[in-house]
Amino acid sequence: MAAPKKTAAKEQGQDRDNGPPPEFTRDQDLAALRDMLLIRRFEEKAGQLYGMGAIGGFCHLYIGQEAVVVGMQMALKPGDQVITGYRDHGHMLATGMDAKGVMAELTGRRGGYSKGKGGSMHMFSMEKNFFGGHGIVGAQVSLGTGLALANRYRGNDSVSVAYFGDGAANQGQVYESFNMAELWKLPVIYVIENNRYAMGTAVSRASAQTDFSKRGISFNIPGEQVDGMDVRAVKAAGEKAVAWCREGKGPYILEMQTYRYRGHSMSDPAKYRTREEVEKVRHDQDPIEQVRNRLLAAKVSEQDLKTIDADVRKIVNEAADFAQADPEPDPAELYTDVYR
Amino acid sequence: MPIQVLMPALSPTMEKGNLAKWLKKEGEAIKSGDVIAEIETDKATMEVEATDEGTLGKILIPEGTADVAVNTPIATILADGETAADLGKAAAPAAEMKAAQSAPPAEPAAAMQASPAPTGVAAPQSVAEPDPEVPAGTEMVTQTIREALRDAMAEEMRRDGDVFIMGEEVAEYQGAYKVTQGLLQEFGARRVMDTPITEHGFAGIGVGAAMAGLKPIVEFMTFNFAMQAIDQIINSAAKTLYMSGGQMGCSIVFRGPNGAAARVAAQHSQDYSSWYSHIPGLKVVAPYSAADAKGLLKAAIRDPNPVIFLENEVLYGHSGEVPKLDDYIIPIGKARIARSGKDVTIISWSNGMTYALKAADELAKEGIEAEVIDLRTLRPMDTETIIASVKKTGRAVTVEEGWAQSGVGAEIAARIMEHAFDYLDAPVTRVSGKDVPMPYAANLEKLALPSAAEVVQAAKSVCYR
Question: Which of B9, B97, B412, B425 has its CA 20 to 30 A from that of B380?
Answer without folding.
Answer: B425
